[in-house]
Inverse folding.
């Protein structure tokens, strides 16, 4: 027993050291200009996508609830957090934390409110209902300036303080990864997985399926809102078109290509995906840049044909799996 | 009152066009349970080929429609063969991602300069627009042509599905692939045929759409595709009458919202109605509710 505890602490220590080393490395590369401002933006975007995609990972990858409207929640988070910052922006870092919380809570609340009716639907019908919700949010944001002029409506919102930097994005992403990991491996997370595997069976062994689905959906949408809040403070201009159904497809692509039910897959794919899209622009050069979309499409098709279970296919890096305190039978006998 | 009837006719035109696209979605969903996101882009290809047919290649427009149908039918079969068949018995989401990939491929591929090019094109109509005035309600010959063509194809499809051998095979496959095989149905061939028919109908829809709303561009298929799919879900996906009913409702809702409330709210109200209908009837208006088997 003591050995296991020691191992756990060891593992955590390694994780913390790994994270700090990675951060220092990125920081040095940015300050020395190895990562130029252009790639820095790509890096920031990839971290935002990671956070949002982990949210969809919980909803779809672990709970099996098909959502085609994830970007709408990112947008709700971005707009609410941006509005908060524009109103209370003079208080510096504290107001930024406040804005992120507002984005998270607002998107989570909307997820809860829409989840109550639509989570009764199953598979594709749920997907279409959430897709529809995404369209409704887009129209609402397009016309939001009629009620709150600061939101800018279809013309987009400007003037949000650009306070997000590497530290904010990196450590928020890190916290979200740990938070998601703890959620997945908690009793609630196990209940979510049981619903994904078989909802009827989960119901029979006493899982309150509706409540659990609603919880996972709210949690995932809150993460989307957090990603949105960061987005609004990373890019000086946001418009409703940034959070449309094509962006929802992007999140879905990241989660599915990473492998459903794999946090590792989601994180790696989110970062790889963002860099692939920009990298293609770079590799193809101005002459062939028109082919970017076609090549991206081909990569997408070929990847899913070759790895239908996703790149990581439900597997995790070891450090993302908490040590299970399960003693071997012979150890128990000896103990 | 006249203006209301006018809106009903406009809505009918839009709804019938959605129906042509929705049928392809619903037949594919019925046979392999896949939301074929590339279907809207097949519709786009249909519009381009049809337009090029009667403008650049100098074909008479009914022939252009037939050429466009043939091209799209072949395209649909090829897409199914390459991108969906290897994933047919994989988790459904894998094929869905593949469909999104195909959709991007068709959109970005068409945008290439040596294919169709990325620009919007204004379409020259193959015949002059004539407007008749019937007691305050105006009807154009374009509307008459569209309605006639759509209704002919709908009747043809109903005949095909319910009165022919291949139609029986399609209905069998939509129930159960294994059982269909046991009955001697060639499942692969039937699915290919379903894609061919669905894509050909989308091509007709594309050409008519280009004639009715004279503008085409490589991304034109996305919104009509999604709307038509939504209409198919609204009516009860997998059901041919459901797709038509859903499309007609969708056309009316959109036209009425644009006419009497606000054209900006068109999408929002259409989708809000979809969500409400799904909450009351989770498998659509005409959909059969499936009993959960344990």
């Amino acid at each position: 027993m003591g050995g296991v505890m020691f191992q756990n602490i060891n593992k955590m220590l390694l994780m913390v050291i790994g994270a700090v080393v990675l951060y220092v490395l990125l920081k040095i590369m940015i300050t020395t200009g190895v990562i130029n401002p252009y790639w820095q933006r790509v890096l920031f975007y990839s971290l935002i996508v990671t956070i949002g995609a982990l949210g969809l990972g919980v909803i779809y990858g672990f709970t099996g609830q098909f959502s085609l409207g994830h970007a709408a929640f990112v947008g709700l988070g971005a707009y609410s957090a941006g509005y908060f910052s524009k109103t209370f922006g003079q208080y510096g870092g504290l107001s930024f934390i406040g804005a992120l919380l507002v984005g998270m809570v607002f998107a989570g609340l909307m997820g809860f409110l829409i989840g109550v009716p639509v989570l009764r639907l199953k598979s594709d019908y749920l997907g279409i209902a959430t897709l529809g919700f995404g369209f409704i949010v887009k129209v609402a944001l397009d016309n939001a300036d009629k009620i709150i002029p600061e939101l800018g409506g279809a013309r987009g919102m400007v003037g949000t303080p650009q306070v997000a930097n590497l530290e904010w994005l990196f450590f928020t992403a890190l916290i979200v990864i740990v938070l998601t990991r703890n959620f997945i491996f908690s009793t609630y997370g196990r209940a979510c997985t049981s619903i994904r595997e078989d909802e009827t069976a989960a119901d029979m062994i006493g899982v309150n399926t509706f409540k659990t689905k609603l919880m996972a959906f709210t949690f995932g949408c809150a993460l989307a809102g957090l990603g949105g809040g960061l987005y609004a403070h990373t890019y000086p201009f946001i418009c409703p078109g940034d959070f449309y159904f094509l962006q929802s497809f992007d999140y879905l692509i990241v989660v599915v290509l990473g492998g459903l039910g794999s946090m590792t897959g989601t994180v790696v794919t989110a970062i790889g995906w963002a860099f692939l899209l920009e990298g293609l622009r770079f590799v193809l050069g101005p002459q062939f840049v028109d082919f970017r979309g076609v090549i991206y499409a081909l990569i997408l098709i070929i990847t899913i044909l070759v790895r239908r279970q996703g790149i990581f296919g439900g597997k995790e890096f070891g450090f993302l799996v908490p040590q299970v305190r399960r003693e071997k039978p012979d150890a128990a006998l000896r103990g | 009152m006249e203006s209301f009837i006018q809106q009903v006719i406009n809505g009918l035109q839009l709804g019938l066009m959605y129906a042509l696209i929705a049928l392809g979605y619903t037949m594919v969903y019925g046979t392999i349970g896949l939301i074929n996101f590339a279907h809207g882009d097949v519709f786009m290809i249909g519009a381009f080929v049809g337009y090029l047919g009667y403008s650049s290649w100098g074909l008479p427009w009914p022939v252009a429609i037939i050429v466009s149908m043939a091209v799209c039918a072949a395209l649909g079969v090829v897409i199914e063969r390459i991108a969906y068949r290897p994933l047919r018995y994989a988790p459904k989401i894998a094929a869905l991602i593949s469909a999104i990939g195909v959709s991007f491929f068709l959109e970005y591929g068409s945008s290439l300069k040596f294919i169709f090019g990325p620009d919007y094109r204004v379409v020259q109509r193959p015949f002059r627009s004539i407007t008749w005035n019937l007691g305050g309600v105006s009807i154009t010959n374009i509307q008459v042509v569209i309605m006639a063509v759509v209704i002919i194809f709908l009747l043809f499809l109903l005949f095909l599905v319910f009165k022919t051998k291949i139609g029986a095979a399609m209905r069998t496959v939509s129930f159960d692939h294994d059982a269909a095989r046991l009955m001697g149905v060639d499942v692969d061939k039937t699915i290919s045929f379903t894609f061919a028919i669905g894509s050909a109908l989308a091509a007709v829809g594309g050409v008519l759409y280009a004639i009715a709303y004279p503008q085409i561009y490589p991304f034109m298929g996305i919104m009509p595709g999604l709307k038509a799919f939504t209409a198919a879900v609204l009516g009860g996906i997998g059901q041919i009458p459901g797709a038509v009913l859903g499309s007609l409702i969708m056309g009316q809702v959109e036209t009425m919202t644009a006419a009497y409330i606000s054209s900006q709210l068109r999408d929002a109200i259409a989708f809000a109605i979809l969500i409400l209908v799904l909450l009351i009837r989770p498998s659509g208006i005409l959909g059969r509710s499936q009993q959960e088997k344990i």
Q: What stands out?
A: The first strand of chain A starts at residue 157 and ends at 158. Residues 75 and 209 of chain A are 28 Å apart (CA to CA).
